[in-house]
Design brief:
The protein is mainly alpha-helical. It has one domain (2-116). The protein is 70% helix and 7% strand. A two-stranded antiparallel sheet has the order 1-2. A hairpin with a 7-residue loop joins strand 1 (127-131) and strand 2 (139-143). Residues 130-151 have low confidence and may be disordered.
Length: 151
């Protein structure tokens, strides 16, 4: 569970860190505004398309595999930018490829986490997890006791 929470937090941080910093870097190298908008918005388009398939993939292959693949894709896209392998002045298709990795990765991570939570909250250990949002600090654990019903 700790790996899941850490992975989810890192996935969200890696994705959202570039929502603010990448456009500023592209402005600094002189990219036109419409190109910056298209590059940044491409992640949402890829995310939407991949999210449509994510549920079926989770049902077929399981949440853990989809989570692992999604986290790997998301981390790969983020690391390409963070390590300077792909820069703000690289050709637009390279930046769109990075945003594709980030968008598709995030589309797999979020529903996979949601599919894994019931297995832990209703499993043999009788631990319950309430997930009020996708941000890890909002997860709350409560142990069940046979004599009291969960609230």
């Amino acid at each position: 569970m700790i790996r899941l929470v850490l992975g989810m937090g890192l996935a969200q941080s890696g994705f959202h860190a570039f929502i603010a910093s990448l456009p500023l870097a592209m402005v600094a190298v002189g990219r036109p505004d419409d190109e910056i908008g298209a590059i940044m918005g491409s992640a949402a388009v890829f995310n939407l398309m991949a999210a449509l398939a994510a549920g079926g993939l989770i049902d077929r292959y399981g949440g853990r595999l989809v989570y692992t693949v999604g986290t790997t894709l998301l981390a790969s896209g983020s690391l390409l930018l963070a390590l300077g392998i792909v820069n703000a002045d690289d050709p637009a298709p390279m930046l769109v490829l990075v945003r594709l990795l980030q968008g598709v990765g995030l589309a797999g991570v979020l529903p996979a986490v949601a599919s894994l939570v019931p297995a832990w909250s209703l499993g043999p250990g009788c631990r319950r997890l309430w997930l009020s949002s996708a941000w890890p600090p909002t997860c709350q654990w409560q142990s069940c006791h046979p004599s009291r019903s969960p609230s």
